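Model it.
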Amino acid sequence: MRRVVLSLAIAAGLAIGSAVPSAAIGTTEVTLTCDDGTSTSLIVDADTLTGLTLAVQAMIDYPAGLTCTLVKLPGLATFGAVALE
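Modeled.
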């Protein structure tokens, strides 16, 4: 009887563990807002966040008529939604 219960507990743990994607681990939610009315919320990894930050900084350093801001949102990221490069 103990083996059956243990087997069911292990099976349930493996089923739940495989259903939750690990893609959201190490991600951050950010909002990119531009003065033309564009606003986008993204969930990005560390490399994408670095590239996005550098791109926004380049727009500030060399203005081309469009100003954008990047805001890092507090809290946990949503599972399974990662912006791809």
